[in-house]
Specification:
- The radius of gyration is 30 Å and the shape is globular.
- Helix 2 crosses helix 9, helix 7 packs across helix 8 and helix 11 crosses helix 14.
- The two termini are about 25 Å apart.
- It is of the alpha+beta class.
- Helices cover about 30% and strands about 25% of the residues.
- The chain has 5 domains: about 80 residues, Orthogonal Bundle (Recoverin, domain 1), CATH 1.10.238; about 60 residues, EF-hand (Recoverin, domain 1), CATH 1.10.238.10; about 120 residues, Immunoglobulin-like, CATH 2.60.40; about 150 residues, Jelly Rolls; about 100 residues, Recoverin, domain 1, CATH 1.10.238.10.
Length: about 600
């Protein structure tokens, strides 16, 4: 039951509303603010957090003291009428209010707000910000570029601070009006027009356990075509890397597929065993390929490899029209991160000196170089073309191979049909060690860039093999086009597949916040969709799941979701593919 607010007297009501025209405008603004958070005026405010959000949409900036006045321990909910009465009592934020607040921040009273003063306030109250975030905030509104926010009589047109916050308030009001108009148009649709929100959804309160049988015990749902030998076949190798320079992001080779004709295609992807990389006792590193139509600015996916066949390959079969496609490799990183977190033994020696004091490569180092050669040999012909060597050089040095550098290669090492042999590649590293007089720093840069640790274990990379078969297109071309972070390419595409295929539940008390859970044959993904105008912090607790490992370091993970965005919270795969696994996820909002 709502805690009813005491009604103002008729005289007070008259003073607060003024003319009937002004009162009508006031109610429209209240309605717009309410409908920017809720779908209907009959919906109730069910939390203090929601009360704050809807008041902010109305141009008010409620303090904790104001919120506590209207939301007490006895409050169950507030109605739209309650909200209107609160808005009558608590006037919208004015420039005078902002100036008073500004003077409180201005500790030394010089008429300016310095980075230190603003930093002190924004990092000690409410949702704390970093110093860089505060600096960005000042830079965005510092019109005279003096590194400070100014107020006071010396400024001709009000302070930059007031301009910033008042313009934000106006934008909130405009956005609320647009949202109200949009929702009212939806209500005018014919009753037989289907909408996503009208479809039956699982109850958010009663969640059944998502139990999956062991991966190896399930029969394959996808099988290769019986006449596959007659199809045109093109393939390439590639690799996932954990890039320490990019904050631990996963990067990989990217591809384009050109089809001259409409055709049926069969695409497979699997880890490529080099040493122990890509495989554990519990199962292989998960892999997938997302197929995107070239020229799609929003990265709209066409299809992706969702299931495994009887050979353990992730694969998909579909029809594709003639044209160019992006093929973007994907892995959750669950097992890859686990491997990279293992303890390292002492550093392996890369070089030694023989009896004649000549520098020679150690046996262990030569074995690692042979593995690197196999990883760099993208076309799998046992040789490194200039193109293969170029991608290797981009990965290890960040630069392409110049003509004069390739001339040195051609003039000094063993080639076959104009391409580098494995013996020649090892000799190239021998030359580098000699040129550096035994200094191994550059050699270690190469090794760590390719995913090796100091023990020369390949634990921060996963080689893979990609195969594309086309039935009706004899002119199909698969080319490596780059080395990029998969998050940049695939965040929207992964979220799109999860929201389309997964089960959805609304977060209690949050009308515009949804959590989607999609569980495939060997992978589960939890995605959070925030359709509100405020960023939220949500805790996704999967610690009660059984036999799973996450791409996050902790199964109980907290993430921040910006306004009007959809982000991935967890990827989960079975820790032991031979055993049953259960996915349980409990979400909660952090105030």
């Amino acid at each position: 039951m709502s805690r009813r607010l005491s009604r103002p007297s008729s005289a007070a009501s008259h003073r607060s509303s003024g003319s009937s025209a002004h009162d009508s405008e006031f109610k429209v603004e209240c309605k717009a603010a309410y409908l920017s958070v809720y779908d209907d005026l009959k919906d109730v405010i069910s939390s203090e957090y929601d009360l704050s959000a809807v008041l902010q949409q109305s141009g008010r900036n409620p303090t904790r003291k104001i919120l506590a006045k209207y939301w007490t321990d006895e409050t169950d909910y507030l109605t739209f009428d309650d909200f209107v009465n609160i808005c009558r009592r608590e006037h919208a934020t004015t420039t005078d209010d902002l100036m008073k607040a500004f003077r409180k921040i201005d500790i030394n009273g010089d008429g300016y707000i310095s980075l230190d003063e603003l930093f002190r306030m924004l990092t000690t109250r409410g949702e704390k910000m970093t110093r860089d975030e505060v600096q960005c905030m000042i830079d965005e509104v510092d019109e005279n570029r003096d590194g400070k926010l100014d107020y006071g009589e010396r400024i001709l047109y009000y302070s930059e601070f007031c301009n910033m916050l008042m313009s934000t308030t106006d934008e909130c009001k405009k956005m609320s009006m647009k949202m109200m108009e949009k929702k009212e148009r939806k209500k005018k649709r014919p009753s037989n027009t289907p909408r996503r929100d009208d479809m039956p959804r699982p109850s958010p309160r009663v969640k059944k356990d998502k139990v999956r049988t062991p991966v190896g015990s399930r029969s394959a749902k996808v099988s290769e075509p019986s006449n596959l030998r007659d199809w045109t076949h093109t393939s390439s190798k590639g690799c996932f890397f954990i890039d320490a320079d990019e904050g631990g992001q996963i990067i990989s080779h990217q591809y384009t597929l050109d089809l001259a004709d409409d055709t049926n295609v069969f695409i497979t992807m699997q880890p490529n065993r080099i040493g122990d990389a890509g495989f554990t006792d519990d199962g292989p590193v998960d892999t997938a390929i997302y197929v995107l139509r070239e020229g799609s600015s929003s990265n709209k996916i066409v299809t992706f490899t969702e299931q495994r066949d009887s050979k353990g390959r992730y694969c998909v079969r579909c029809d594709l029209s003639a044209g160019r496609y992006k093929l973007v490799p994907f892995t959750t990183g669950c097992r890859l991160y686990e491997r990279s977190a293992g303890r390292e033994t002492k550093e392996v020696k890369l070089i030694k000196q023989d009896k004649e004091d000549k520098i020679v490569l150690s046996k262990t180092f030569k074995k690692a170089l042979e593995d690197i050669f196999d990883m760099a040999d993208l076309d799998g012909n046992g040789l490194l073309s200039r193109e293969d060597f170029n991608w290797y050089n981009i990965r290890t040095s960040g630069e392409e191979v110049a003509d004069d550098e390739w001339d040195v290669v051609e003039g000094n090492i063993e080639l076959e049909r104009g391409e580098i042999t494995k013996t020649g590649f090892i000799h190239l590293n021998q030359m580098e060690a000699e040129d550096n007089d035994g200094d191994t720093d550059d050699l270690w840069v190469t090794l760590t860039s390719m995913g090796f640790n100091k023990s020369l274990v390949l634990n921060q990379a996963c080689p893979f093999k990609l195969d594309v078969y086309t039935e009706d297109c004899r002119d199909a071309s698969l080319e490596v086009m780059g080395l990029e972070a998969q998050a940049v390419m695939l965040e929207d595409a992964v979220c799109e597949t999860v929201t389309a295929k997964g089960e959805v539940s609304k977060v209690k008390g949050m009308k515009d916040l949804s959590v989607y859970t999609y569980i495939g044959d060997a992978r589960a993904t939890v995605v959070v969709e925030n359709q509100s105008y405020s960023k939220i912090r949500i805790q996704l607790d999967c610690s009660r799941s059984k036999n799973v490992v996450s791409n996050q370091r902790d199964l109980n993970y907290t993430l921040t979701v910006p306004s009007n965005t959809t982000v991935v919270g967890h990827h989960l795969i079975p820790r032991d593919e031979k055993a049953e696994w259960i996915v349980r996820c409990q979400e909660s909002i952090l105030r």
